[in-house]
Design a protein that fits this description.
single chain, mainly beta, 8-stranded antiparallel sheet, 2 helices, 12 strands, globular
């Protein structure tokens, strides 16, 4: 039977790379920030939630902002005088037996992860929002249309950007590895909406 399947309203998932090794100063910074981590449900995080504000992170922050601007240009393609700016940023550490619970990032537009150290077959899981699904059907095979989970394998230096309302998490670490990543949130900075529609906002992030 002749037919055509079309995909509507794609969820934009961006993958890039830092494009270089981490410097000795950056690695020392990561180690110091995670020397006294705080419990984060099933793994650990830095107490500092503004790690990208540090002088040692200047180069990394510039690289992440450049990727963020590329993502914003591709996915939003707006004529508004607005950009996405990094707000909070933090480090996470997971060891064998740890995991990262499924969650979203409120008060953020786009979230991102920079991978610093991880196992060869590690990555991140994204989950379809099935809250409004009222039926259950057993899948013979996962496809683009029916899969409830999407796994992205990542490596050291990889950068992942995604809408902050997409549920995501990390499976239990099964190898003897110190899994370290840097996560960050973003928000609009500039003008959004339209004055003639009485919905314009001017947002300036501090």
């Amino acid at each position: 039977m002749e037919h055509q399947m079309m995909n509507m309203f794609a969820v934009p998932l961006y993958r890039g790379a830092l494009g270089r090794d981490f410097t000795a100063e950056e690695m020392q910074f990561f180690k110091a920030e995670l020397s006294e981590p705080v419990q984060a449900i099933s793994n650990y995080a830095s107490a500092n939630k503004k790690v990208l504000d540090a002088a040692a992170m200047k180069s990394i922050r510039a690289a992440l902002q450049a990727h963020l601007e590329q993502y914003f240009k591709i996915t939003f393609n707006t004529s508004n005088n607005v950009s996405l700016q990094i707000t909070q940023s933090w480090l996470t550490r997971s060891q064998k037996g740890d995991a990262h619970h499924t969650h979203t990032h409120p008060n953020s537009v786009v979230s991102g992860v920079l991978y610093i150290n991880l196992a060869p077959t590690d990555g991140i899981n994204f989950y379809r929002n099935d809250d409004n699904v009222w039926y259950e059907l057993l899948r013979q095979q996962d496809t683009y249309y029916n899969a409830s989970r999407y796994f992205v394998q990542t490596g050291m230096g990889d950068i992942i950007l995604f809408p902050s309302n997409v549920r995501h998490g990390v499976s239990e670490v099964t190898e003897q590895v110190d899994r370290v990543s840097l996560s960050f949130n973003t928000f609009f900075s500039g003008e959004i909406g339209r004055e003639e529609f009485s919905n314009q906002l001017n947002i300036r992030l501090v």
